[in-house]
Amino acid sequence: MATVNPRVQVTLDPELAQALDAVDPHPSTKSRLIRDMALRGARAAEKERRWAHEYLVGVAEGTIDYDFDALDEVLRMRDEHFS
């Protein structure tokens, strides 16, 4: 189909093929399915980013409880492991 928008090439590797089949094993067009999946994924990623931002703001403002002692322990263990 003709379009004025730029196109992209996507390699249909086994991982992508499996994802496409999981969503719709018999799509009318693979390109439409890939586009729809990309848009849904982008919306989900943006929703997750907003949630993470709100969570961190809540921790910073003290409205969300956060165990900083546990964080210190995890960071100490990480540093011991990589030093």
Fold and architecture overview:
Helices cover 69% and strands 0% of the residues. With 83 residues, the protein is mainly alpha-helical. The protein is elongated. 0% of the residues are buried.
Assembly annotation: single chain
- The Cα radius of gyration reads 21 Å
Distance between the termini: 57 Å
Number of strands: 0
Major sheet description: none
Category from helices, strands and their pairing: mainly alpha
User: Please, what is the average pLDDT?
Assistant: 95
Number of helices, where a helix is a run of at least 4 consecutive DSSP H or I residues: 3
- Provide the β-strand percentage band: under 5%
Model regions low in confidence, pLDDT < 50 over at least 5 residues: none
Backbone shape: elongated
The amount of helix comes to: 55-70%
Order of helices and strands: HHH
Layout: helices, strands, pairs:
Elements: H1 14-23, H2 30-61, H3 68-82
What features would you highlight for this structure?
about 80 residues; mainly alpha; about 70% helix; elongated
Give a short overview:
The chain is mostly helical and 83 residues long. It contains three helices and no strands. The longest helix is centred in the middle third of the chain and has 32 residues, at 30-61.
